Amino acid sequence: MLYCRIVQLLLISTIKEELMEVQKKYILSKAAAGKKLQRMAYEILENNADEKSIILAGIRESGSVMARNIQQLLSQIGDIPTKIITISLDKNMPAEVTLSSNEDFNDKVVIVIDDVASSGKTMLYAMKPFLEYYPKKIQSLVLVERSHKAFPVKPDYVGLSISTTLLEHIYVEVDGEEIVGAYLV
Question: Which pTM does this prediction carry?
Answer without folding.
Answer: 0.84
